[in-house]
Design goal:
alpha/beta; Rossmann fold
């Protein structure tokens, strides 16, 4: 029987304008955490409209940076300004490794910065590390463990 993630995140929200990335992410979650439900949104505007209607926050939000209409940095600032979402883990999920993006998202309260991997297997491995090793809630947030690295989990 498959072990449940230590953090038991069941309600996962992914915000990404790339339909292929949404599909791969959802597939990876279904394989590593089959009890989870993944809700997806296409852009920041759609995200903020969705969050405004929620009674309970998702267990974790994966947020792309480069999206049309409202980008991930703008969304992150807005979300962190809403009391209901102050403690919701927000993981930046992006192709960027720009030091400015990393620093700004850390300063605005993101929990982790995860670069989109090059393969489906890497994605599964990174998500497995996040959900099964208590990285999301088991560590104090710091700039030392903010960037999720492909090969070793956290740098």
């Amino acid at each position: 029987m498959k072990q449940l993630p230590k953090n038991e995140f069941k309600n996962i929200l992914l915000v990404d304008d790339d339909s292929d990335d949404r599909e791969l992410f959802t597939e990876a979650i279904s394989l590593i955490h089959p009890l989870a439900e993944v809700e997806t949104k296409r852009d920041g505007e759609e995200l903020m409209e969705y969050l405004a209607k929620l009674f309970q926050p998702p267990d974790v939000i994966f947020l792309d940076l480069n999206m049309p209409r409202k980008n991930g940095k703008e969304c992150l600032k807005d979300i962190r300004g809403i009391k209901q979402f102050e403690t919701t883990p927000i993981i930046i999920y992006t192709t960027s490794l720009n030091p400015i993006d990393i620093q700004e998202t850390f300063n605005h309260g993101a929990s982790f910065f995860m670069r989109k991997p090059n393969s489906f297997e890497e994605l599964k491995g990174m998500l497995h590390n996040l959900f099964y090793s208590q990285l999301i809630t088991g560590r104090e947030r710091s700039s030392d463990n903010f960037v999720v690295n492909r090969s070793i989990g956290i740098i």
